[in-house]
């Protein structure tokens, strides 16, 4: 059952990642051409980010493929950590792209140039709508399959929508202001680079938490405790440790039972607790029960 769940989650993640790759490839071409002929570095910066997003999505795709592999002799807990590792790489690439955009923006601010062409606003408007749509769809998938990598891929689309929006504002100011406002879209690209770094931080922290086995959301722990306490023979709970591995969770639970019970009876209760938890929460891959006398 667990393997089929992982396979389903992987298929969903890979599907959305493929959509990201195709969309970013198309948009990188459109924005690059529009930026060059429309005299807008903000659009060119957008094209650079879309190009970097293609490589980021490929890293997410590879991370999902590796994370979907089951346990083996060298990886008894599976390969789930590949997913947050891919997310961290994606966040670092996003920061790198932001730095490049910022450097070029400063250069353009210091260099006189023409006002961007009006048609670039039409291109940016379409990009904003498409990117926000992709963010919402892919982020929803990431939440459904509990994948930090897929959610990171979604945030790339949100950051692209934000940079396109700032570029839209910058070009609008340049067109309305006319002479003296030629570099407004370059300032917009510079502001966008700061926003991109913020989004990268937003992606990086949860992924690093998974690598460091940070505690899961409190509702998951509460659900495990409630289910375990409903099993007949359970007198109480001591430790409840949970860590995320890829799409799923591993649980270590210390269960208190009557100290006069036989080993066989204690073993039976342990299995009932494990089965009840696995049945209640399909995100949980395995439960290790430690029986303690009460």
TrEMBL record:
SUPFAM superfamilies in the record: Cation efflux protein cytoplasmic domain-like (SSF160240), Cation efflux protein transmembrane domain-like (SSF161111)
Localization terms from the record: Membrane
Molecular function per GO: monoatomic cation transmembrane transporter activity
Cation efflux protein transmembrane domain location: 18-212
Topological relation to the membrane, as annotated: Multi-pass membrane protein
Domain of life: Bacteria
Stored InterPro entries: Cation_efflux (IPR002524), Cation_efflux_CTD (IPR027470), Cation_efflux_CTD_sf (IPR036837), Cation_efflux_TM (IPR058533), Cation_efflux_TMD_sf (IPR027469), CDF_Transporter (IPR050291)
TM region positions: 21-41, 85-103, 115-134, 161-181, 187-205
Record domain Cation efflux protein cytoplasmic: where: 216-294
Cellular component terms (Gene Ontology): membrane
Keyword field: Membrane, Transmembrane, Transmembrane helix, Transport
Entry's family note: Belongs to the cation diffusion facilitator (CDF) transporter (TC 2.A.4) family.
Descriptive protein name: Cation transporter
Organism: Rhodocytophaga rosea
